[in-house]
Amino acid sequence: MRHRRKTSKLQRKTAHRKSLLFNQLCDLIEHGRIRTTLAKTKALKPLADRLITLGKRGDLHARRQAISLLKRPAIAGKLFEEIAPAHDGRQGGYTRITKLGQRMSDSAPMAYIEWMDFAVASEEDAVAAAVAEDAS
After folding, report:
1. Crossing angle for the helix pair 60-70 and 14-31, nearest 10 degrees?
2. pTM (predicted TM-score)
3. pLDDT confidence tier of residue 127, bands split at 50, 70 and 90
């Protein structure tokens, strides 16, 4: 029986799907926010939340588990040192999905996935800061 075995297959084989999701997870940790299709963001959200839980635990075994999933020790270090402490007071729901509308080429629904309590320096903020510096 397939009780509680729901998974989003994303029209890919298992190895390709795992590789795709963990690469996107590395990008999410590195950049703080990524833009991708809505289906991929919904598949990525539980994995990201699970990794934040590992990061909040913070022991050696949790670090080794994160490194084995992410395959990049530097990214795992950023998860444990910067992102997980920012979510310390939160009990769950560490990511936010913001729908963007449809992609021009194939009308696929697009969305941002980003961390809730981790400030992301966006391009608009950088431009606003530069304009404020020039004005003063």
Report:
1. 120
2. 0.82
3. low
